[in-house]
Amino acid sequence: MIENAEPKKIIAATTATLRICQRLLASLETALKSGRVTHFHACANNRGAPGDGIVPWDAVMQLLKQYGYAGHITMETFAPGGLDASWVNVHGTPDEVALRGLHFLQRYF
Fold first, then answer.
1. Which has the closest alpha carbon to 57: 67, 70, 45, 69?
2. What is the C-alpha separation between 23 and 72, in angstroms, rounded?
3. What are the beta bridge partners of residue 41?
4. Angle 86-39-29 (CA atoms, 0-180°, nearest 5)?
5. pTM for the whole thing?
6. Are 16 and 6 within 8 A, CB to CB?
7. How far apart are CA 92 and CA 26, in angstroms?
8. Closest CA to 74 of 15, 21, 28
9. What are the beta bridge partners of residue 13?
10. CA 62 to chain centre
11. Fewer CB atoms inside 10 Å of the end CB: C or N, the chain?
12. Chain mean pLDDT for the chain
């Protein structure tokens, strides 16, 4: 998907989706090289808080810095009661997830 993106289209990179394709770092680097990543969704591979799960965050953040990413970084997580909620509560309350993810991401800035 990223490798064949049309030149005029922008790209939103999502760690959960990129992780599913088993090529997170290579796919992210391809997208960043294009210069068209304008939005970055940070979340665990299971849509929990950034820092949970198996996403290699040091390498992800290094790529963002290496390619001069200066756009927004938002957390895209599943929260109880939301339209995209998990079937069971695996992440805690929305406030707990937000605070845990925020504290984790602050380590990089």
1. 45
2. 22
3. 14, 74
4. 100
5. 0.74
6. no
7. 31
8. 15
9. 40
10. 13
11. C
12. 78
Beta strands in the chain (DSSP E): 11-14, 37-42, 72-75
Contacts of 60 (CB under 8 A, 6+ apart): 15, 24, 25, 28
49: its two tokens: 């808080």
Summarize pLDDT for 52-75 with one digit per residue, the tens. 888 899 999 999 999 999 998 988
Strand-pair partners of 73: 40
Nearest to 24 by CA among 43, 5, 6: 43
Alpha carbon 58 to chain centroid distance?
13
| Cα–Cα dist 55/45, whole Å | 6
Instruction: List phi, psi (to 5°) of 73.
Output: -120, 120
**C-alpha closest to that of 56 among 44, 66, 68:** 44
Q: Which residue has the tokens 């707990």?
A: 96
